[in-house]
Amino acid sequence: MSKIFLLIFFVLFFNTIKADDIKTSVILQNCNVCHTEESSKANKIQPLKNLEKSYFLSKMYMYKKQNKNTVMNRILEPINILDIIKMADYLYGE
Hints:
Layout: H1 2-31, H2 53-65, H3 71-76, H4 81-92
């Protein structure tokens, strides 16, 4: 009986990790529309790869907390703080 529970736990655990990685990469693909060197807005918006991890986290947190009607505020509406941390880890390493 306990072997079945362990098996179920591991299957669910590893599927969750894969889903989180996919979600993070999909979120970042959306960011790349504006935040890459190839973007038409590259002269105004820095590519994410050029930022420091701490700067990225502070800016994202600031955008998340602001009550302004900006593009970044609207984009970050469904994204929580843990998602932002996962994004930073994905981009810059843990």
